[in-house]
Amino acid sequence: MWGKSFLLLFISGGVVGILGQQFFTPGNDIRCARMWDQLGFEGNNVDCDQNERKTNLGGMDCKAESVIIRNGCTLTVYDKTGCKRTIERSSSCLWGWNRRIAAACCECDGCQGEVAVRDLSCARLYQNLKCSSCSGFRLEINPLDAVPHLQIFNNEISSLVVKPGCSLSVWEGQNFTGNMEIFTGGVDSLMTQGWNDRVSSLKCNCQ
Ligand SMILES: *[C@@H]1O[C@H](CO)[C@@H](O)[C@H](O)[C@H]1NC(C)=O
Fold it and tell me: Which CATH class name applies to 33-108?
């Protein structure tokens, strides 16, 4: 990323000081991601906001060649054939994805962020890491829900978020059998707890 900076010096009564100091970086106003139709962050651009799913890029359809992604955010991009890729870092050249992006979805802050907790009734479970809704399914769990068998979601859960004041109990087996664990708050990756793709039944409770 290039930077442009300027120092404005002033002399007043023998005092030399720095009046203004400003560092210009393209896109320090970006909330999630910005795509440009030229290499090196030049030309026309389009923004993808936090948790925004852009199914139509308008004039930028299949034109993006470079992208800036805010720290902590990820941009999931899709081409016309439905292929997708998750981009985690700014890139002055999209290589294999140059002029291929037809849709995009941007997310920040994972399971710990404000967005993950919004409209939460008891818990939300995700197929992918970091409570990502850009790809994979998500499952809403209400207070007092007891799910003895997750059906197609069985052994597929990788991250979750539980509403403050509530707790989620999960079991390795159907019908609340086998190993059990209680989760609260946001968990970006169930791998760290050894529960990735292992949940088969669950209960959610709020105080
Ligand atoms: C879970 O309980 C249901 C209903 O009692 C039963 O039909 C099913 O076989 C049980 N599943 C397992 C894996 O024990």
Answer: mainly beta
